[in-house]
Write a structure and sequence with these properties.
Blueprint (H helix, E strand, L loop, with lengths): L13 E4 L1 E2 L42 E5 L5 E8 L4 H11 L13 H7 L4 H11 L5 E5 L5 E7 H8 L3 E5 L5 E5 L4 E2 L7 E7 L5 E2 L2 E2 L44 E4 L2 E2 L1 E3 L9 E4 L7 E11 L4 E11 L8 E7 L5 E8 L3 E9 L7 E11 L6 E12 L11 E2 L16 E2 L26 E2 L2 E2 L1 H7 L14 E6 L5 H11 L7 E5 L11 H14 L4 E6 L5 H14 L4 E4 L1 E4 L4 H16 L3 E5 L15 E2 L6 E11 L5 E6 L1 E2 L4 E2 L3 E2 L21 E2 L2 E4 L3 E5 L4 E6 L1 H19 L7 H11 L4 E2 L23 E2 L1 H7 L1
Parallel strand pairs: 2-9, 14-17, 28-30, 28-31, 29-30, 31-33, 33-35, 35-41
Antiparallel strand pairs: 1-10, 3-7, 4-6, 4-10, 5-6, 7-8, 11-32, 12-43, 13-17, 15-16, 16-23, 17-22, 18-21, 18-23, 19-20, 19-22, 20-24, 25-36, 26-27, 32-34, 35-36, 37-38, 39-40, 42-43, 44-45
Helix pairs in contact: 1-9, 6-7, 7-10, 8-9
Length: 785
Amino acid sequence: MRLTFRVAASLLTLAVTLTACGGGGQNALPTTLGGNGGPQNLAPKIQNVIAAVPRTSGIFATHDLGHRGAADAVKVTVTLKYNNQAELDALVRDQSDPLSPQFHRYLTTAEFNSRFAPTQAQQAAVEAQLRPQGFTITHEYANRTLVEATAPNAAVERTFSTQIDTVSEGKFGQRFMNVKPATLPKGLGDFVKDVTLNNLVIMHPLSSDSSGRTAVPSSIHPVGSASATNVQPMAGANIIGNPGFETGAINGGWQQCGNISAVITTAHPHTGAYDERSGNVSGEPNGDMGVCQLVTIPASGQLSFYVYQSSNEVNTTYAWQEADLLNTSGTIIANFYRSVSNTGWTLKKANLSAYAGGQYYLYFGVHGDGYTGLNTRQYLDDVSLTSGAATPTPGPTATPAPTPTPAPTPTPAPTATPVPTPTPVPTPTPGSGCTGSPSLNGPFSSSNGWLATGVAKAFDFPTQHGCNGAGQTVAVEIDTPINANDVSTYLSAAGVAQTGSITNIAVSGGGNAASSDYVETALDVETISGLAPGANIRVYNFPDLSSQHIEAGYNQAVSDGIATVVNSSFGGCETGDTAFTTTTNSIAQQAAAKGMTFAASSGDSGSSECSGSLGVSAPSSDPYFVSVGAVNFTENSSGVLTSITAANDTSNGFKSGGGVSTVFALPSYQSGISGVNSSGRNNPDVSFPGIGVAVYAASQGGWLKVDGTSWSSPEFTAYMSEVNELHSTHFGFVNPTLYSVFKSTGYADYTDVTSGTNGAYNAVTGYDLVTGIGAPKGWALAQAL
């Protein structure tokens, strides 16, 4: 679900890779050589990216508002280099190699800090360079990997030889980014790897609503009577009455249009003191909410207006922003656009010369279905309609409105490949690490979607064999804390008795519990507690899904060294901020050395994770993360898997993410796998269910049905907690082991998924860029690892 994030708008955050003046570039991740499938080539293919990439479209689109004020505060995060990097690479490789004496011999936090972390003297040297330049150190970590500081913008620009502008990032508000490539001062080059200089939100939760919403027919109609302006204007004269709403009311020619009244606000006018808002502050309107003005179109009529838009819908099935030309009966004659955009103030234009002399309503508004879990808004200001008899500003000719069609009926999933009924595996005496906990035996599903037992039985989770994650601790990284009462409601419906604990850990001030992102938090925690009810869960929550806050969340979990599996149910285009991908991959390598497994959702936009363009999602594309894709499935009344296909829900546009990284080279653990593209790191690695899970979130309306790789990643997290319990160890960097088992036993321990598509790629026999290796056969793979 692409949801609204509440974020502080005064600090900077997005990681940007820097080059040192006078030599000494970025400390690239070295290529690691040796064991377990050959060279561990985990180095990024793109080096020395020295500026953030602005987005021009989509949920993260930015609009530059000009140079940042010299005295305005900027928050900077400095990422320090590890010591003995080659030795660290070799250690992590050997910890995953069963033939090595270092196999599963993990470091404590103290041991890692002693051998590989930046020293206290190195950290002090960096801070000593920053303080005289005007920086205040605001936070340090026990592992000395990150240093957070603030300074006036002028000091930041002077220190890093860059320029920072204020930008509008749609629904995320005003933010900041460096628009000039930055350089690292020579005095910092020896110890600093990256510096964070922007606070753009770059990630979104990877779940989509599938709660059976019903599209509401559009019924735009002017409220009251009006007379059109019939005077033919002089060239360039604006005939719109009250064009900027500066009367503070909907008057002066404007009328309410639709069944819900639009409002005048002072939220963020384009000019003057007022603007108009269509759409609710929270939840979708149940019908149409907008304003219109009756006009006589002048000769060579040129329309222009400014809109500020926000939405967390994934498509225009149920809600949208729009602008239209209506006849006097309220029928749409021409549609200027229909969108679910996130933009700052944007100028729109249309050439209306084809309608010259006619009387029409100009309509601007939002349509919705009344759903409370999502929100679409549009602000309007500075509307102009002029005669273009002089030199008109060219604009797109309005296109005739298509005949309205009913909301699409979800199409059935592709014909699924039947899965042969497996030979039952007798349940052995639980391994030495297992508690012998009872298997899940609750309902498979409810009217709201799948529940824990439905997944545990169909995919034969270790919890069905006495391993429920007892004694294990997992982490959830997200931007809101969890409400334990919601988890209790879910577990009661699922028939699951939880014995593990749930703890909220606030990072960088913590997340906003009222955010609509809360659905993601509920999905993650309820999935893990349902499938691994013995595991302890630590919810590391931070203010927003910007790079600095995500990095802080990761680093805090790794520095704490308590969790052994870390879940990330969010993602964004990996090339939008390559420094973020390399920084998070580096933090995940530290986690691996300590025996921690990092898992991430592979994305919900199929093969096009980069604003509609071919690309993969980060952090899932990081080689030290397990990339988890999604499948759809059926099972019989005994809980036996009967069919499986790649996840694809046409009702909300969800497609399981997959493709080839352009940032990271092919890691050695994927080398030699038939079907793997050798040009880069392939995504995903494995897949679990991702269609139609039941989630309970009281603040978002109660029970919801949700799709997304945001479900499959916490399933994998729960699964690994049980695997760790079974073997009385931690698997840490488990990727090489997942692939070595596949190379050795093929589909004895996985289910091949050969049906479905994610856009550019199809699920086929063997490894593919839709579902990876396939779906784990839970108990069989757990024993084989």
